[in-house]
Amino acid sequence: MASEPSTQSRVMFQAGDKTEEPAHRKLGKLTVKYNRKDLQRRLDIEEWIDGQLHLLFDCEEEEIPELEIDIDELLELTDEGQRTRLQELLQECGKPKEDFINGLLYRIKGLRKMSGPLKK
């Protein structure tokens, strides 16, 4: 069988175009623009918020009222404005909310507002 090269399968590789290289470099710039630590910190805060809302409303996720806490919106407000906005959002909650509000305000201190495509 080794003497019949026409019956053997061959695998050929082609060199990639150089047009793909700039796309790779753009990806690197995005990684630098959105610091991985900042993204991870924001994700941790969002997960904390989700867990705390389950405790505050004492129900399953499907039963939590439609509630959107926009971190970027909060970052645009003064400290008192942040507290007021959170109290407005949580007015339907019957449980004490001060610990949640204080915890969230503590966690977002020093967080930078995100701009562009990564914001939902």
UniProtKB/TrEMBL annotation:
Give the source's domain of life in one word: Eukaryota
In this chain, the stretch annotated as Disordered covers: 1-20
Family matches, as Pfam families: PP1_inhibitor
Q: Where is the composition biased (Polar residues)?
A: 1-11
What biological-process GO terms show up in the record? Answer: innate immune response
State whether keyword Phosphoprotein applies: yes
Q: Cellular component per GO?
A: cytoplasm
Keywords, comma-separated and alphabetical: Acetylation, Phosphoprotein, Protein phosphatase inhibitor
Q: Report the GO molecular function annotations.
A: protein serine/threonine phosphatase inhibitor activity
Xref: PANTHER family = PROTEIN PHOSPHATASE 1 INHIBITOR POTENTIATED BY PROTEIN KINASE C, PROTEIN PHOSPHATASE 1 REGULATORY SUBUNIT 14B
Q: Which family does it belong to?
A: Belongs to the PP1 inhibitor family.
Return the protein name: Protein phosphatase 1 regulatory subunit 14B
List the top taxonomic levels of the source. Eukaryota, Metazoa, Chordata, Craniata, Vertebrata
